[in-house]
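Predict the 3D structure for this chain.
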Amino acid sequence: MIRAAALLALVTAAPALAQQQADPEDVASMAQAIEEAGCVVTVENGDTIMAASGLPPEKVNAVIAELYASGALALREDGSAELTNETCP
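Done. Predicted structure below.
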């Protein structure tokens, strides 16, 4: 639950983190994990998504910032984050 809250907090702080560079393979791993969870990150599924991504916590900041900065991940009014890409239109 703490990781899920941290993930959502990172989405809101992503513009400030945008100067960090994420490895494209790490971004793809996180995107795939979000896709497999139905394209939406919530407090309830955040821990599962982070585990499925296989990324260590120290890489997650840059990955979330990259997804947010590219427009692929957007914060919703309910506090969740939605992925938009080829798999998640």
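The beta strands are 40-41, 73-75, 81-83.
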